[in-house]
Amino acid sequence: MKLFQFIFYLVILNSALSCNKNVSDDVIFYTDFHSSKLTKVEKTGDNQYTTYFSPAFEPVNKSPWFAFGISSKIDKEIVVQLNYGKYKHRYVPKLSSDKKTWKIIDAQRIKVDSSTGIATLNLSVSSQKLYVAAQEVESSEDTYSWINELLIKHPEIKKTIAGKTVLDKNNYALEIEDNSNLNSIVLIARQHPPEIPGGTISFKAFYEELLSNSQMASDFRSKFNIYTFPLLNPDGADMGNWRHNANGVDLNRDWVGFTQPETQMVDKYLTRKTKEGKKIQFALDFHTSYSGPYMLILDSLNEIKTNKIIPDWIDRIENNSQFKVEARRRSQQLPYCYNYFYNKFNCEAVTYEEGDEVDRHIIKKRAQAYARELMITFNNK
Ligand SMILES: [Zn+2]
Fold first, then answer.
1. Model pTM score
2. Signal sequence: where (predicted)?
């Protein structure tokens, strides 16, 4: 096989992002954006390419993230294989020309070999860059610009620098706080970088529902402070990590040891709030799973010892919305975020899991319904 022309540029844009560009004849593969991931690309034949993806840290669960751009000097059809080495294809590719609007690849344009785990894509490429990614790309810039738009619409939200990340970036909390309120709830999103459906789409829709100008939402906000960590792992998101933060640690296994700045930040922040007299009543931690949607809830001991919010909330969702809740019970003793809330603050907490490929419209509707029913549950207590 003739070696293709290969030019590699490495431009350090800032401490977190290395920008490289792989050039092969007239087709260019791009990784010059936050959250991109493409380990290697080879030309394997006329208009045929193999792309390779490997995780930044191991061991890691099977969540092979990919995100790259492609352009071609001339309009044409190319074949691109996604090769994950010892891992297997999981996420149905999403395509975009602007990294804002995404569309799932047509079913007839993808084939997955279940024994090798390699996916083969047929793509139409042109001089306009085509983005191909495991999920909609949501880098820290994207989440922070959503926050900045929210702050304009809702001046009652206070954005604070709650701590720093491993890479010394600011890590933010959003506060809606009335000093006369002691009752508080906490939302945490995106500990795991690829988990955009729950970690970003559900989380945003849920939070925006809490901010709505309905009577129910304003009643709720008149009684509850809302503390939010909208992107707990910005380093991991921007690095295109499969699971970890920049130290290679799964943050959702660090809620007992607190070895990482991101988990330490939350603990320090909430400890300070409780010292000021705030009472944390409930917490939600937003994730995505292959088998979602479902909700992880703690042993029944959790609600027996507290305010029975979870069973009332689930009853309300099932009676008043189109959604059913698959609740999966887990032990109190695991080093997960929601266990921390129960063990430290004696409050109820859930892990909110969406599914990888659930229709995005349904994801938003579910999050809105869950948020409304949670507010009514609290308003009625
Ligand atoms: Zn997760």
1. 0.94
2. none
